[in-house]
Automatic annotation (TrEMBL):
Keywords for the protein's UniProt record, in alphabetical order: Signal
KW Repeat (keyword) present: no
Region forming the signal peptide: 1-27
Organism: Actinoplanes ianthinogenes
Protein name according to UniProt: LTD domain-containing protein
InterPro entries the UniProt entry points to: Lamin_tail_dom, Lamin_tail_dom_sf
Ranges for domain LTD: 23-141
Highest taxon of source: Bacteria
A Pfam family: LTD
Matches recorded under SUPFAM superfamilies: Lamin A/C globular tail domain
Length: 150
């Protein structure tokens, strides 16, 4: 056996490589969109109250908390980049409201003076800090609906 490993090692080194055990791949966080409230109830007045009644939420279905720092929620024309935010494990949720407000651990505010999500249909994209698409939520307007489970 020693002779075989020595031969394999010599062969690997001769090819310019080395024998290194590969590190296990890190599993992607168990994050996904949970719900999109894309049509603020009542008239679209663009008041801060109305803007904040439009929101989208993320849920962490994994067992460990996940840092969202640098992750993004992207619409066709706007991008929200998470700051120093952590979403708890085991069903932890974070809700991103369209308007202005004071961020908490579970409620964040885009700070927009305009609605983000189209009532007639839209797609929200969750991107990792490396810019890779992690999840999407797409909807089309259904009669009488103002939101959708993703």
């Amino acid at each position: 056996m020693r002779r075989t490993l020595g031969t394999i090692s010599a062969f690997a080194i001769a090819l310019g490589g080395s024998l290194v055990a590969a590190a296990p791949a890190q599993a992607a966080p168990s994050l996904r969109f949970s719900y999109a409230q894309y049509d603020s109830p009542g008239s679209d007045t663009r008041s801060n109250k109305s803007l904040n009644a439009e929101w989208i939420s993320l849920v962490n279905t994994g067992t460990t908390a996940v840092s969202l720092k640098g992750w993004q929620i992207v619409d066709k024309s706007r991008t929200y980049t998470f700051g120093n935010v952590t979403i708890a494990g085991k069903g932890g949720k974070v809700t991103l409201h369209t308007g202005k407000g004071t961020n908490t651990k579970t409620h964040l505010y885009w700070g927009s003076g305009n609605y983000v999500w189209n009532n007639t249909g839209d797609t929200a994209t969750l991107r990792t800090k490396a810019g890779k698409t992690h999840d999407t939520c797409t909807w089309k307007r259904k009669s009488g609906r103002t939101g959708i489970a993703c």
